[in-house]
From TrEMBL, chains A, B:
Homodimer. This is Phosphomethylpyrimidine synthase. It catalyses: 5-amino-1-(5-phospho-beta-D-ribosyl)imidazole + S-adenosyl-L-methionine = 4-amino-2-methyl-5-(phosphooxymethyl)pyrimidine + CO + 5'-deoxyadenosine + formate + L-methionine + 3 H(+). InterPro entries: ThiC (IPR037509), ThiC-associated_dom (IPR025747), ThiC/Bza_core_dom (IPR038521), ThiC/BzaA/B (IPR002817). It comes from Halorhodospira neutriphila. Residues 2-66 form the ThiC-associated domain. Belongs to the ThiC family. Catalyzes the synthesis of the hydroxymethylpyrimidine phosphate (HMP-P) moiety of thiamine from aminoimidazole ribotide (AIR) in a radical S-adenosyl-L-methionine (SAM)-dependent reaction.
Length: 491, 491
């Protein structure tokens, strides 16, 4: 889609549809255009070379701007940046509306000026609900090629942002390859790398953390998870819990505070952190280090105490022009989900909420992509802006490529269900196109309109593999004589 | 659990737990008792012979009662039947409360006097949310041994009732084997067999349907889905829809009405149907023949018109002492779920609601166990009494054994999440036991407390297969140095 300047062209995907057969002959169906996160990886004409990296779509726009200016700063000054226009075209929103949302902190565009490869996207309660996928190597596994493959896999299935949670060897190098080849914003948790450098949590320090922040900022990371809301006074509250502290960053910060009998440097140095972030226009994702790890601990004093601190930090970040998102639970029973959303909205002045699920029951390990999608869809409907996916391996082990695919598609479905329930403009177009194809037995269109066409096709073909069955007025579920849709059409 | 008479012993499952290691030595954890649907199939001491059938637990109770008396009739007369007491013990409710719920039609115990093998269970808004699994052969597949295996599989994974939707050969014989070996209530849709006999929808007739009803009633079917709510006046309303009529029963009835230019015999003969049902104490599941088949058609005039008719039929059935449940959608966007529950409650005088999902977005074929679990968990929380499972093959083909397992476990999780959100007494005990085991790295307990212990164990063992890792204070997800729960425990 062309924008207002020649170097602004918004990527989208078009799904071709076959004609509807009618008594009067075939009636064509227009193609359906859908939001696409795949960047060049879903462009059949793109020439790809990971060693060179992908196209730097934002390079000319960044070159026109001074360092230290942020999307939020421009928005407050009334400027519609090319990034805002891109997002508006992508989402079907008015550019001025996007600008206003960013100015008041209700939406963010995570876009480090050192990551020109990223296609602009927005996270906010009036945008489509987004999905984040976590990847990253661990001391036990995988190198650069595997992580790059996971990235491509993730954006192809629809991840809107990707967090690189690497903790093993070659963290810096892995991140460099990811950034130079990522069409979506990349997030990290800098304290992981700082801890790799320090060895033990108690040996962490502000200079070491600051150095790590700058190292990652220079590379182009678009948003940082920073657990600055874990204050000393909150830590004893977590002792009463069934499952203590289940955030890696939160547990590390708590350990540091305990060892030093001091407030964490993340909280103490928050303004200095913001100065660094503003310089690169990095978004801060305020980590929920005290999120509940089971439904019993949901909405407790530790979680709510931290949330209030996150609200205070939001205002401090905004004072520096730094864009903010707020991380949220975790594990929440369904009856508390709407209240969790309302509490965040109030405590954090409508800064976008970014939740991990939440999981709504603890009794289904192996199925936690599902128990969490139940919570994610609901909290998305109530206004959460981005959902961090959970894979079937949650609580049990490191996900493999197939788990990543299952996790992302599950979350794309949950996010889309939230868009539909919110009445987001145009959200239902894909549902309706697919339902129409289903009713007209256009099986190829049915598959192509699905979030995971390959799986839909494979499931269908398990019992009816022949090409002729792609035209059949039934499937093996009810069989030819009992196909309700076929009987209905005869009426 | 022993009841008030020697022949009343309620089945339950006990999960042994290992001790917690403390500084002062091991501290034992009491076993956790959970609701069990497996009947003799989960009893290691049971001698099983499908040719003889399982124990006829209800035989002595039925022998004490006259034919034509129903649980509803007894309840209205103030009698607490052994079935009501069984249900009360199983659910942790007061027997008098169960009786009162049944008397006013807010709960049902589907239990044909010709199915003494079934362990009593209740469906109602103040009981645990139940899950139904559909099985059944089709013209394309599977004989008696396969269907029996699916039944055992279904109850083992937790199906509270099973519907036999067979449409192919040997319907009568298959059903006989299922009934004689089923510890859970069996439901059917009698019009399927009637259609097999008739050949074409227009050749269906009241005598043929009546004969089929009695044939199945004699065998012991516990509840019948009957699409008596599809009235002639509703059928034109479905023409405006994106996906017309998607209920098999509904499309058959609509076809008959159109061919005969008449009101269906199911509606016209409803009182005669009720007389048959009362004789055996069969529950009627009022089918939603006009349920929406896509989110665009949700809550439309056809659906709501039929729902009002179901309310009228509910009162007619109750006048005969026949227990009633109401089938519901299907496909509903999240923002309409609570209203759908409220509409049913009002139109059908609080008769238990029994929904198929609902699916909350149409764009994820291959993942519809998930898109529907999102809706199912929510509508269960709002008061739906039983959830009909959906498998990953929905809309695409006949499920296989693994799809059945995935569908049931997914729905058990959704139903349990609803119980937790409703604050059902004791519902959270299993969540808390599992979370505690998780936090204390009692991996075997963690797996054993899961809804699907085999899958949880397999996922864990994919990366850490050694026995020693079952004691490890980490898993491969965050790895030994970054395990948040391990760091938290050091605090
Ligand atoms: S056979 Fe059943 S599931 Fe398959 S297309 Fe027809 S109505 Fe849909
Ligand atoms: S490594 Fe992570 S997922 Fe595994 S037990 Fe520890 S905190 Fe839980």
């Amino acid at each position: 889609m062309p924008g207002s300047r020649p170097d602004l062209r918004v990527a989208a995907r078009e799904i071709d549809l076959s004609p509807t057969e009618t008594a009067g002959g075939p009636r064509p169906n227009p193609p359906l255009q859908v939001y696409d996160t795949g960047g060049p990886y879903t462009d059949p004409d793109a020439a790809l070379d990971p060693a060179r990296g992908i196209t730097r779509v934002r390079a000319p726009w960044i070159a026109e701007r001074a360092a230290g200016t942020t999307q939020m700063g421009h928005a407050r000054a009334g400027v519609i940046t090319p990034e805002m226009e891109y997002v508006a075209l992508r989402e079907g929103l008015e550019p001025a509306f996007v600008r206003d949302e960013i100015a008041r902190g209700r939406a963010v565009i995570p876009a480090n000026r050192h990551h020109p490869e990223a296609e602009p996207m927005a996270i906010g309660r009036h945008c489509k609900v987004k999905v984040n996928a976590n990847i990253g190597n661990s001391p036990l596994s995988s190198g650069v090629p595997e992580e790059l493959e996971k990235l491509v896999h993730a954006v192809r299935w629809g991840a809107d942002t990707v967090m690189d949670l690497s903790t093993g060897e070659a963290i810096h190098e892995t991140r460099e390859w990811l950034l130079r080849n990522s069409p979506v914003p990349i997030g990290t948790v800098p304290i992981y790398q700082a801890l790799e450098k320090a060895g033990e949590p108690e040996d962490l320090s502000w200079p070491l953390f600051r150095e790590t922040l700058i190292e990652q900022a220079e590379q182009g990371v678009d948003y940082f998870t920073i657990h600055a809301g874990v204050r000393r006074e909150h830590i004893p509250l977590a002792r009463e819990r069934l499952t203590g502290i289940v955030s890696r960053g939160g547990s590390i910060v708590a350990k540091w505070c305990q060892a030093h009998q001091a407030e964490s440097f993340l909280y103490e140095r928050f303004d200095e952190i913001c100065e660094i972030l503003a310089h690169y226009d990095i978004t801060v994702s305020l980590g929920d280090g005290l999120r509940p790890g089971c439904v019993a601990d949901a909405s407790d004093a530790a979680q709510m105490g931290e949330l209030r601190t996150l609200g205070e930090l939001t205002e401090r970040a905004w004072a520096h022009g730094v864009q903010v998102i707020i991380e949220g639970p975790g594990h929440v029973p369904m009856d508390q989900i709407e209240a969790n959303m309302a509490a965040e909205r109030e405590a954090c002045h409508e800064a976008p909420f970014y939740t991990l699920g939440p999981i709504v029951t603890d009794i289904a390990p192996g199925y936690d992509h599902i128990t969490s999608a139940i919570g994610a869809a609901q909290i998305g409907w109530h206004g959460t802006a981005m959902l961090c996916y959970v894979t079937p391996k949650e609580h049990l082990g490191l996900p493999n490529a197939d788990d990543v695919r299952t996790g992302i598609v599950t979350y794309k479905a949950a996010a889309h269900a939230a868009d539909v329930a919110r009445g987001h403009p145009g959200a239902r177009a894909r549902d309706d196109a697919l339902s129409r194809a289903r009713y007209e037995f256009r099986w190829q269109d049915h598959f192509n309109l699905a979030l995971d066409p390959e799986r839909a096709r494979a499931y269908h073909d398990e019992t009816l593999p022949r090409e002729a069955h792609k035209e059949a007025a039934f499937c093996s579920m009810c069989g030819p004589r009992f196909c309700a849709m076929a009987i209905s059409q005869e009426l």
